[in-house]
Amino acid sequence: MRQGWRWFGPQAPVTLDEVRQVGATDVVSALHEVPIGAVWTQADVEARRDLIETTPPGRLPLRWSVVESIPIPDAVKRTGGEAKREIEAWIASLESVAKAGIGVVCYNFMPVVDWCRTELDHVIDTGATAMRFDIETFAAFELHILERPGAERDYTDGERARARTRFEAMDEREIADLTRNIASALPGSTTEPMTLPGFRDKLAQYQGVDAARLRRHLVEFLQEVVPAAEALGVKLTLHPDDPPRPLFGLPRVASTAEDYAALFDAVPSAANGMCLCTGSLGVRPENDLPAIARRFSSRIHFAHLRNTRREADPRTFHESAHLDGDTDMVAVLRELVAEDRRRGRGETIVFRSDHGHRMLDDLAKEVTPGYPATGRMRGLAELRGVLHALGHPPEAATARPLA
Predict the structure, then answer these.
(1) Catalytic residue among 304, 318, 322, 357, which?
(2) CATH for 29-116+202-389, among 3.10.310.40, 3.90.640.10, 3.20.20.150, 3.20.20.370?
(3) Does 304 participate in catalysis according to the annotation?
(4) pLDDT at position 307
(5) Mean pLDDT over each residue of the chain, to the nearest integer
(6) Helical H segments across 105-210, by residue range
(7) Any catalytic annotation for residue 354?
(8) Which of 301, 318, 322, 355 is catalytic?
């Protein structure tokens, strides 16, 4: 297995030398500056690759091994195969990635809103902060800030009453922060920042798109792009929904084992794979993560390893330490190790410690929300330790001789 690290580019607070210092060997990155739907040129992809892989004298080499993500335009999610121009552009970006030698591409199919949190710096019992999704605060946003038509039907009388109480206790700053957290696109998001009117308009465009139709659109997309991926030697990995359940009255179709099984049955190519995100899938109590890893082991080409802790209302959760949450991370890693041992060296699984607590000196400096260096370093070290204990230490970088 190979140790990955998500890097948001040359403007990110974490430098490439710091990526080396935490022990990662592989970089997970994307051209975040390219507008959604625009083609990634080969020159731009190769420039980013060269920035990552050109090793200064005396430094350990890094490899850009996973693209996360090439965003899928909204038109594809709403209309499926009818969005021919957008799909052709996506394939053109895929071709640029393949020509640059990058063999794994992660993507998601969440409509309108990508990953969603109500708090980015929830103080936990150690004094560190974690990201949190609170269903009561979310309901307050949906009912009283966004004012989504029909939202009241998704909540009981008691839930609506608690949401109103929560909203009435908010000051202007809290309302602004909550709106920004939900509507303005979190780091790495593959959806665009929205104003509240724009948000309502986007939701209205999905009228009539139920789970069956959204899944059909995803299958139509895959039927177009998977043959190209096969020809290029690229593995596509679908990231789970986060949270893994419908939001804003919209369906989500990558939330359970059966969701993935349906997609693999519809498009059985080995290039149609999954990103095993233990944090996203682990939010649903019925998702057995070790069993999912075992069932779809041959389809896993990339793994996000993080943990979450469900609270009294299981729809509310916060990001926990990597080995201290509702998912048995050791059991998951045992399944991934078994699969990794079956593979040839060139097919080994790339994993990254996903998210992390904001802690120590990161509390006093600018960080990318969800991606502080120290919390992710702790997670990567813990995961690396488990792999050593399982007798399957991850691949390590080899230093080039000093000049």
Answers:
(1) 304
(2) 3.20.20.150
(3) yes
(4) 98
(5) 95
(6) 135-140, 157-168, 172-183, 196-205
(7) yes
(8) 355
